[in-house]
Amino acid sequence: RNMDDDGSKALNEEEFINGIHETGLDVSDEEIKEMFKCFDEDGSGSVNMTEFLLKLRPPMPQCRLDIIDQAFAKMDKTGDGVITLDDLKNVYSVKEHPKYQSGEMSEDEILTEFLNNFEGGRGNLDGKITKEEFENYYATISASIDNDMFFDLIMRRAYAL
């Protein structure tokens, strides 16, 4: 956020270079440009918060991976290693969703929107959530939560584990 001079919630190459210099890191502009390319996973020419956090975060501890695996297994009702619309229909009710109640969206539309959350900017929006996509989604959330027990609590409450 400190490096984001224009408030776009993403860093362009100039902001990234200036930000690295401001940290006092002793590296050349060429080295920083290489770093920028590594951070800019999607090749968009900017580094969003997700890309930034994912590169800076340490690997997730096994306890977090275990609870993510439990949540994935609960969602993947067919056990085929992929969460689909049909899997969601068995675990996620849209009956209380305001857009379903108003008739603005169908059950499939709401569930598809829910699935797309897990793919975000890193997935292929094919309506199928792989274990890797599910873990990547929670890696982003994990990067902003310092305490393992709090992360565990969030996951348990979200998925009634």
From TrEMBL:
Keyword Calcium carried by entry: yes
Which key words are in the record? Calcium, Metal-binding, Repeat
Offer an example of a GO molecular function term for this protein: calcium ion binding
Extract the InterPro entries matched here.
Ca-bind (IPR051581), EF-hand-dom_pair (IPR011992), EF_Hand_1_Ca_BS (IPR018247), EF_hand_dom (IPR002048)
The membrane spanning regions, by residue number, are none
One protein family per Pfam: EF-hand_7
List residues of the EF-hand domain: 1-26, 27-62, 63-98
Q: Which SMART domains match?
A: EFh
Q: Which CDD domains match?
A: EFh
Task: Please name the Gene3D superfamilies in this protein's record.
Answer: EF-hand
Q: What is this protein called?
A: Calcyphosin-like protein
In the UniProt record, the gene name given for this protein reads CAPSL
